[in-house]
Design goal:
Beta-galactosidase, Chain A, domain 5; ten-stranded antiparallel sheet; 3 helices; disordered C terminus
Length: about 300
């Protein structure tokens, strides 16, 4: 297994910078061009948030809206639903029930009843290089514990159609074997096709899949494009792109059987305190003719 261990005197931000110093994969370049066409900017740095107006949420659920895409989180079950133009597309009731982290050789997830929420959900507003956003953060501990070891945050950018799923690790963890957030299970009717960018540069080839989640995932896979299958040749009005924003080599896609999952890969067995990864889900209609799948 690979140990994600900082060198002496190195911080997690140093590590993040070193990882990002590699040339952008072709898939990232293509995605950035796509997003620029749609007027969307994706965060490209760790951009430690500048949150303001943080407070505990008091209702039974909370919805964050970013342009055409939104996410609703239930504060009883912690399930989340992703909608496009108000219509449901995905929920978290598949792999891991949406959240999991690992430490000391064990996995902790909602699905197994070993992941416990700590404190109240916190909403905030903030800004980073991608623009202004509103957010919702959930803190977690392993069953029987009270120390926050894992934080999951939903970020919805204003004047865009981007939801970012952020994972923070306030404590150093050893014996890790992967995390999950988000985990997206299809709920919309009809069939979804997936284009997965792949190859040694994570983007010089495209692997089409005629079913969701379809992806192979792993370190040699880049962003995935999700779209309704066009059975009649008229085109579709919505495409989604999903993939890592921070730490591409660490944050990898995974086929969860009935869910598309992102998170820290299982081959990393150590996480430094303060480490973070982000996954973006972008809604875009500007290039639907190029990305429509067929049989």
């Amino acid at each position: 297994m690979m140990a994600f261990t900082p060198a002496s005197g190195s911080s997690s931000s140093d590590i993040a910078c070193r990882r990002r110093s590699r040339p952008l994969p072709a898939s990232r370049v293509l995605l950035l061009l796509v997003l620029l066409l749609a007027g969307t900017v994706v965060p490209t740095t760790s951009s430690r948030a500048n949150p303001a107006v943080t407070f505990a949420a008091v209702s039974a659920q909370h919805t964050l809206v970013s342009g055409r895409v939104s996410v609703t989180v239930d504060f009883v079950t912690y399930a989340y639903n992703v909608s496009v133009d108000g219509a449901p597309w995905f929920d978290s009731n598949g792999d891991s029930l949406g959240y999991s982290f690992s430490a000391d050789g064990a996995q902790f997830s909602l699905a197994h009843g070993t992941l416990m929420s700590v404190g109240q959900p916190l909403t905030a507003s903030g800004a980073d290089p991608a623009g202004n956003y509103t957010s919702l953060a959930l803190s977690w501990a392993r069953q029987g514990g009270a120390t926050v070891e894992y934080v999951t945050t939903f970020k919805a950018y204003r004047d865009r159609s981007v939801i970012v799923f952020r994972q923070d690790f306030p404590q150093a963890l050893t014996g890790t074997a992967g995390t999950t957030f988000p985990s997206l299970r299809q709920t919309m009717p009809g069939r979804l096709g997936v284009l997965e960018y792949c190859g040694s540069s994570c983007g010089f080839m495209v692997g089409p899949h005629n079913s969701f989640p379809g992806i192979s995932g792993g370190s040699e896979r880049g962003y995935s494009v999700i779209t309704p299958l066009d059975d009649v040749g008229t085109g579709v009005r919505t495409t989604l792109a999903i993939g890592p924003v921070l730490e591409h080599f660490v944050n990898q896609g995974r086929n969860g059987g009935n869910s598309m999952c992102y998170g820290m890969h299982s081959t990393f067995e150590f996480v430094p305190a303060g480490f973070a990864i982000e996954t973006s889900l972008v809604c875009n209609a500007a290039v639907y003719c190029l990305l429509t799948c067929s049989h």
